[in-house]
Each structure stands twice: as C-alpha cells, then as structure tokens.
Amino acid sequence: MKGGTGALTAALADAAKHAGAHIQMNADVSQITMRNNCAAGVVLADGKTISADKVVSAIDMRTTYLGLVDAGPLDGTVLKHIRNITYSGTMARVHYALDDLPVFKGLDGHSSQALRGHIQLAPTMTYLQKAFDPVKYGQFSEHPYLDIRIPTLNDPSMALGGKHVLSATVKYIPFHLREGNWETLHDALGQLVSRTISEWAPDFEQCVQHCHVITPLAMQNDYYLPEGSLTHGDITLDQSLWMRPIPGYTQYQSPLKGLYHCSAATHPGAGITGINGLNAARRILRGKK
Ligand SMILES: Cc1cc2nc3c(=O)[nH]c(=O)nc-3n(C[C@H](O)[C@H](O)[C@H](O)COP(=O)(O)OP(=O)(O)OC[C@H]3O[C@@H](n4cnc5c(N)ncnc54)[C@H](O)[C@@H]3O)c2cc1C
C-alpha cells in the first residue's frame, strides 16, 4: 500500500472527520468514568474530562477493566474471566534502514522483483519447530524464523535516494525470559537477526545503515500491547469465537452499561481488517433504535 499502513489509518481518520468525528491525538485515557454503574466518559492523563453516554474501548480487556475502570461493580465471575485471559507475546520486530538491497543467495543478482513479497526464512518444518520449542521455556532459538518485507520495493517514497527499509518479524521470542531481561538482551536480539539474514544474504550487514529493535517488552511499553501480545490476548481455542474476549460478553458489549469493545481483543481477533470496529459500530447503532 502506498504510504504503508499509516496511509490507511490517515484515510480512515479523514473519512471519520468528514462524517463529523473529532479525533484527539496523543491523549492517553487514564480513567473511564462511571455514573450509576454506567459509563459516563473518560479522564485524560492531563486531567481533562470528556463526558459521553457511550465509551468504546479499542484496547485490551485487562488494561480496560483492571487499569481504567473501577472494577467494583463487576461480577466476580466476570473479573475472574478477565484476570484469566492469557497474553503470550512471542514475537519481536527489527527494522533496518538499508543503503542498498542485499543480494540473497539463489536469486539472480538483486532480483528486486522476487523480493517484493513475503520473504520467509524458515527452510524446513523442523527448522520452524526448533525455532518455536525454546519459547516454551522462556528462551529463544539461535536460528529464529524470520518473516521479512521490504516495503520500499513497492513504494519507493518510503525511503529517500533509492534506499530501502527492511522489516523483519522475528519468531519465536518470549516476553517472559527465563534468564536475563530485555534491557540487556536488546542488542543481542538485533545481532541475532542480522546474523540470520546474513546466512541467506551474505552482504546484508554491509547494506545496513541503521537498525531499530522492538523487543516484546517494547511492544508492551511503547505500543501498549500487554506482555507483547499483538492480538490483545492469545488467539487460542478457549479465547476465540463465543469466548472472545470473555464468555458471556461477545458481540462487542461489556459487563458495564454504555461501555463497548472494538479492539483485537474481540471476535474475530487481530489483523488490519477493520471488522471488529465495524461490528462494534453496528452493535452500538442497533442498541440506539
Ligand atoms: C509488529 C506487528 C506486526 C503486525 N503485522 C500485521 C500484519 O502484517 N497484518 C495484519 O493484518 N496485522 C498485523 N498485526 C496486527 C495488527 O496490527 C493488530 O491486530 C491491529 O493493529 C489491532 O488493531 P486495534 O485497533 O485493535 O489495536 P491497536 O492497533 O493496538 O490500537 C490500539 C490503540 O490504542 C492506543 N492506546 C492504548 N492505551 C491507550 C490509552 N490508555 N489511552 C489512549 N489510547 C490508548 C494505542 O496507542 C493504539 O494506538 C501486527 C501487529 C504487530 C504489533
């Protein structure tokens, strides 16, 4: 997509503004206010209060109910379900600014045509299995599975002067480490990914101008994804379909009147589909009739 996914968000924001929405950026919500057990608005981190008879949470359940709402009126079973949601972040992301395209083994020269799609560095099923196994024990493999994209091949405007951006999703990398912590392992993770790419593209490190590592901890701290879970709660059988986000509260409604959900925590889960938001909007509008 020209301009990357940011262009999609910008287009959606423009459409919403055109339809009369007011969007406030850089405004952390620190509390969802309640009146008579109904959502009554939000308080921002700067203390500003916004009143509303409907509040839609676009974030995960744990943060919403255990961080932003007074959980007092909640039923004990509901609270137990919320506390039991599992969040097992198992991936990291490494972004590279490249002076030039690396030459991948087996491809004819730079072969930019072949590099336009997904580049999956996982040669066999056994490799994939071994890349996954250590995460169960809070460790990560020396040979991770990499899912790489070079978006500048499809949209050169994303880097100036014919340079490139390479983005590698790194699996499987645990949020909870058995030994060490992500502050000290941050650089080692970047080096591991560079080494792994170099196995397939030997000149890779010569092409790298800058490397930005997003550890599972950074996913939580910088992107508000609890325990690095990009899906706002694991997509497991017990947290899917009529049990997502929690049993009894599917259909984008919440245990509290006037509060709704529309994030990846809801059915059908994560992905840039917009379906969660669309379904939530339909649900809210249906309730208005
Ligand atoms: C590294 C990575 C790669 C991915 N790759 C893909 C992919 O290739 N394809 C795909 O389809 N999906 C991908 N996903 C998943 C996809 O990005 C998510 O499923 C999707 O963004 C979820 O949308 P959302 O609106 O529910 O939540 P989010 O995108 O997480 O949006 C929630 C927003 O709420 C904000 N927020 C949090 N707390 C507060 C607060 N207290 N006050 C105010 N604002 C707050 C956050 O800053 C964030 O902007 C990826 C995710 C990650 C992390």
Structure, explained:
By secondary structure, the protein is of the alpha+beta class. It is 29% helix and 19% strand. The strands form three sheets. It has a five-stranded antiparallel sheet. A three-stranded antiparallel sheet has the order 1-2-3, covered by helices on one side. The mean pLDDT is 94. Residues 28-29, 58-59, 93, 219, 224, 230, 263-264, 270-272 line the site of flavin-adenine dinucleotide (FAD).
Overview features:
FAD/NAD(P)-binding domain; 2 domains; five-stranded antiparallel β-sheet; 289 residues; globular; binds flavin-adenine dinucleotide; alpha+beta
> Which stretches of 5+ consecutive residues score pLDDT under 50?
none
CATH topology of the largest domain: FAD/NAD(P)-binding domain
Strands, total number: 10
Architecture per CATH nomenclature, i.e. the level-2 architecture of the largest domain: 3-Layer(bba) Sandwich
Distance between the termini: 38 Å
Largest sheet geometry: 5 strands, antiparallel
Order of helices and strands: HEEEEHHEEHEEHHEHEH
Mean pLDDT equals 94
Short précis:
The chain has 289 residues and is of the alpha+beta class.
Secondary-structure map:
Blueprint: H1 5-18, E1 29-35, E2 38-44, E3 49-51, E4 55-57, H2 61-68, H3 76-84, E5 91-98, E6 119-121, H4 125-132, E7 145-149, E8 164-171, H5 182-200, H6 204-207, E9 208-214, H7 216-223, E10 259-261, H8 275-288
Parallel strand pairs: 4-10
Antiparallel strand pairs: 1-2, 2-3, 5-8, 5-9, 6-7, 7-8
Bound molecules: flavin-adenine dinucleotide (FAD).
